[in-house]
Amino acid sequence: MTGSLFGVLGLWGLFAGTHTVLSSRGLRPRLVARLGEPTFLGLYSLVALASFVPLVWLYLETRHQGALLWALPLGTAGLWALYAGQAVAWTLVVAGLVNPSPATVGLPAERRPRDPRGVHRLTRHPLFMGLGLAGLLHLPANGFATDVAFWAGFPLFAWLGCAHQDARKALEQPGYAEWIRATPFLPFTGSGTLRGLRELRPSVLAAGLVLTITLRLLHAPLFR
Hints:
Elements: H1 2-22, H2 28-35, H3 37-62, H4 75-98, H5 126-138, H6 145-172, H7 176-182, H8 193-199, H9 202-223
Helix pairs in contact: 1-3, 1-6, 2-3, 4-5, 4-9, 5-6, 6-7
């Protein structure tokens, strides 16, 4: 039981650590200069998969193990509140994929948006913040130690990873410091939230809802 917990924590640490080191200001430019941007991005992705796939595999083999840290009586209303939150989280993910930000790796300079619109009025990192929110919303219903270690890693990685990216790009990428000042870090904390919600395309909202329902329908046969 303890070994499984430390395995999940260790693989999260490996995943986050390699991400941070490979994208650091000291190492990334040297690797890009030696390998080229496409090769570096391929290597970056392979290293991420090499730690994240075993992390997910280990968790699926050891979920609901370890000490029970909490068992919240959610009830029907509580579960539906979590489902609604998941719809918000996955809509952020979809919107982030459809509308890349200036921080998107490999995005050509001419395609980088200059003024925030839609989802970027909600958060400057919709993809990762959506994944972080999805992980956070799993915590109330999953109180065993391995569950907490796995799902808490998503919001923690989103927060630390996005902060690291902001700090690096503010120094390296022209105009990114202005983008930071114009957009909120955490979702729904900026003054333009209502305007951003109105600017979301109906197709994005529909896709986020369909994705949420699909994941919910697959949840029982895959994870129980």
